[in-house]
Amino acid sequence: MIKRRSLLMVMVAVMAGFGCGLRDQGKERPAEAPVAARTVVPTPEITTIGQPVPIIGREAPRVRSRAADGSVFDLKDHRGKVVLVNFWATWCAPCIVETPLLVDTYSAFRDSGLVVVGVSLDREGFEAVNPFLKRFNVDYPVILGGGNLARDFGGAYILPTTFFVDRKGSIVSRINGRLHDDVLITELKRLL
């Protein structure tokens, strides 16, 4: 009986000390800055498990993969153009919001030398991706990207993550999170 009572007292003390993880519920939290304000373009480096991974200024990694339309997308074939590489997924809410902006931007700037390539991180592959592309009338190339491709770009730890590759083939900036038209247009004007 004493052991049971001691155990109960310990549990009550632990719950009181930790609050069952609910102690912050209902409290006002400070407002976060808008995504565009938190985005740093260009980003000098991203840290992976404490190790700096240089990204900006580095030559873009080799990207050669089958696209959703059956063609082969090869990043090196687009040297001399500005390439926007967008890591996304069909289940990602900010990616869904961002897709029409990418479609419109590609349409508006394609003749100026812009290439947009979507890199889907959907595990279900094109089975999940193709209906999404049809729904949003995506006409830019979309490939599947496993962990290696995201890692080769320095990591896509949040979705969407967008990299800008200049006409020389170097990564010049990175946007973590959903693109906003003002940030996107500013970056494209700088590069095109």
Element layout with pairings:
Layout: H1 2-18, H2 35-38, E1 45-48, E2 51-54, E3 64-66, E4 72-74, E5 82-88, H3 93-109, E6 114-120, H4 126-135, E7 142-144, H5 147-152, E8 161-165, E9 171-176, H6 181-191
Parallel strand pairs: 5-6, 6-7
Antiparallel strand pairs: 1-2, 3-4, 5-8, 8-9
Report on this model:
It is a single chain. The protein has a five-stranded mixed sheet with strand order 7-6-5-8-9, with helices on one face. It has helices spanning 2-18, 35-38, 93-109, 126-135, 147-152, 181-191; strands at 45-48, 51-54, 64-66, 72-74, 82-88, 114-120, 142-144, 161-165, 171-176. It is an alpha/beta fold. Strand 6, helix 4 and strand 7 form a beta-alpha-beta unit. The protein is globular and about 35 Å long. 34% of the residues lie in helices and 22% in strands.
Q: In short, what is this structure?
A:
With 192 residues, the protein is of the alpha/beta class. Helices cover 34% and strands 22% of the residues.
